[in-house]
Amino acid sequence: MNEFIQNLIPLVVAVVGSMAWLAVNALVLVYCERKFAGHIQRRPGPFEVGPHGVLQTLIDGLKLMGKQLLTPDNADRFLYWLAPILSMIPVLLLFMPIPYGPVLTGMEVDLGLLLILAFSSFNGLALILAGWGSNNKWGILGAARAVAQTVAYEIPLLLTVLAIAFMTGTLNLTEITAQQAGHIGNWFIWKQPLAFIIFIVAMFGETNRAPFDLAEAESELTAGFHTEYSSMGFGLFFMAEYGYMVVICSICSVLFLGGFHGPIPGIEGWWWMLIKTYALLFLMIWARWTFPRVRFDQLLNINWKWLLPLATFNLLATALIMKL
Amino acid sequence: MVFDWLHFSIMLFLLAGLLFACGPLILAGLLAPRAKGGDTGMPYECGMVPYGSSWSRWGVSYYVYALIFLAFDVDVLYLFPVATAYADAEGWVSFVKVFIFLFFLILSIVYFWAKGVFTWPRRIR
Lengths: 324, 125
Known about the structure:
The complex is a heterodimer of chains A (324) and B (125). Chain A has helices at residues 2-40, 56-65, 77-95, 112-120, 122-133, 137-168, 173-178, 188-191, 193-206, 218-221, 231-256, 270-288, 296-323. Chain A is mainly alpha-helical. Chain A has one domain. The radius of gyration of chain A is 20 Å and the shape is globular. Chain B is mainly α. Chain B has 2 domains: 1-31; 61-125. Chain B is 59% helix and 0% strand. Chain B has helices at residues 5-31, 63-86, 93-115. The longest helix of chain B has 27 residues, at 5-31. Chain B is flat and about 75 Å long. Chains A and B meet through helix 1, helix 3, helix 6, helix 11 and helix 13 of A and helix 1, helix 2 and helix 3 of B.
């Protein structure tokens, strides 16, 4: 019984920590995104609520809670409300195997990478349920696009992750981080530069972010799969989207940028992970407000004609170099 | 052991995710107004009255992509066990095997490319 309690307490702490991390991230990222967007377009961004508008997202969240939860008349009620919940459920689990610091790991899982990849594909299911359930033409078109896109970009993502797994011989994220200990030269970005670039591009595709946000292209589809969602239904989709962004940026920094290890020996800690993850997140935001949206056939064909052959080639090269 | 801490923690996290998702929804349901009548429940299609249901057949031109995805995803899954063992494998036989596997995988892309799947508007021969 005593052992049971001893095992349980870290898990509960991890769950609560992940919840807090997810919620705080959503608040901070939405604020950063709007502020960034403002400054990139030479305007101040949110400014009214709190000093420099820092409380804006909190107020927005409260406002969302005070809005009516509408269900369209002809919608499939069950699927319609299942979708945002299904989109949100796996997000917390994805934080579990990621090592945020030397001791700040939810749980060391041998198949951590596979666990994350498996559970993150729940999102595609949630998107198609949202589109289908809302019985809205924009919704269905958006959902079809979203699914075509996320499944397409999953393959190069898997192949680049595999290149790292081939090198390290493990799928355990803690061990992958440990192999990059020491100085900046040990980070896998130097050994796998092509994989890093492919991962970054696939990252945008996976999370439906601009320039690849065809699933919710405002000018064509109003809002895509979440056109009909109001109030917290919409809020949950957005929280989940920001959650997935944080997860994928964290994975990127674990796989390529050395995780919680600093650029020089002896200064490791969770703050490095935080800096790297946020640097990648800012890259995503920056790209959103800088690049125009691509066309849908371009989006799919960049993936199948370029990213996928390149990723396969990279994997082969990795396998070859390891044997030399 | 069949049921260990990993399974337990996965369930715990999923349950927490469920709470995290349902909490705000329930709160919003309690706080929010409940307006009715008029066109509140009409699907939003830019203010027009929607013409017909959207649960109709329409040409999904992505299904060939879905087929390639299925082939790839299942095949790539086989590479994960290989990845963990590859570093320990001796000699060139392992590389040749991986090469053959990936070669046929990439051949499928070449096939679909030649077939015209990646050319829009679609002209599949």
